[in-house]
Amino acid sequence: MVRRRTAGPGPTRLRRAHVAGFTLTEGIHSEGSSLPWHHHDGPTLCFVLQGAFTETSGGERLTCTPETLKVMPAGERHCDAFDRGDARGLLVETDAERARAIRTHAPVLDERVAFHGGLPAALAWRVYQEFRRMDDAAPLAIEGLLLELLAVVSRRRTEDLPEGSAAWVGQARDLIHADIASRPTLARLADAVGVHPVTLARSFRRTFGCTVGEYLRRLRIERAAEQLVTSEVPLAEIALTAGFADQSHFSNVFRRRTGVSPSAFRREARGR
Predict the structure, then answer these.
(1) How far apart are CA 64 and CA 262, in angstroms?
(2) Looking at per-residue confidence, does 164 or 249 come out higher?
(3) Three-state DSSP class for 131?
């Protein structure tokens, strides 16, 4: 069930829904308002839809802008100053039972961390779209998208090399980042870092939780999603820059990964 707009002292709540142990709330904070020091009983995700604000937590300040996705563990004290105009966001609160059930697979729930743009933002937009639609299939779609989002951001948090990892694993990753439009073979990457291809394949998967090919595809989609939102570059050019064979290939891969076409993603993100 979705509860509609309520207003009062604090933020203006536009809508709220409870889905499979998650509570989703869309709200607007007016310019000049603030939230004093507070905490949430369960882990939360907050996705900035419009506007910007400043959050203080753990002795650090974070400037949150459109497409910022921040994760806050249960009990973490923080305060927010809406000093950059009105701000609209989607807050996802995880109840204690659901958090316990998924924590092993979503360790990011115990961290204070923020992401901007890329695949996390693309998935968060999909959550928001289903939340706005809220038809009979939306709860199932929202649950699936939230679990995928948590998996993506949990994996990204492990992409810093674990202590004791071989330096050449990081070198291989850096070569991929340096030129995502290229089509490196496993043999060529292994040769560049001085190891056997089988050794690279095993160590890369163990370190980053995916194959070299999967990592490259994910990176290409993240870069493309960021360009779709922040530039007017044509889809065909984005496709080639990101390393896809052509616009059709790009569109098919992007739709499979995010659930929407590149043009729809750009239109919906820009229209809010």
Answers:
(1) 25
(2) 249
(3) helix
Residues 187-222: b if buried by 16+ CB within 10 A, e if exposed = eebbeebebeeeebbebbeebbeeebeebbbbbbbb
* Of 130 and 174, the one with more pLDDT: 130
The predicted model scores a pTM of 0.61
Inter-residue contact 165 to 119 (CB < 8 Å):
no
- Whether residue 15 contacts residue 5, with contact meaning beta carbons closer than 8 Å, is answered with yes
Q: What is the DSSP string of 145-187?
A: HHHHHHHHHHHHHT-SPPTT--HHHHHHHHHHHHTTTS---HH
The Cα 38–Cα 60 span in angstroms is 15
Average pLDDT in the 161-176 region? 74
Distance in Å from the first CA to the final CA of the chain = 23
Q: Is 209 helix (H, G, I), strand (E, B) or coil?
A: coil
Determine which helix (DSSP H) or strand (DSSP E) holds 113, and give its type and residue range. strand 113-116
- In this structure, of 77-86, 112-121, 130-139, the range with the lowest mean pLDDT score is 112-121
Query: Which residues, 6+ apart, have CB-to-CB distance to 18 below 8 Å?
Result: 1, 24
Give the confidence band of 152 by pLDDT, cuts at 50, 70, 90: confident
**What are the residues facing 170 on neighbouring strands?**
none
Integer CA distances (angstroms), 198 to 54, 159, 160, in order? 46, 20, 22
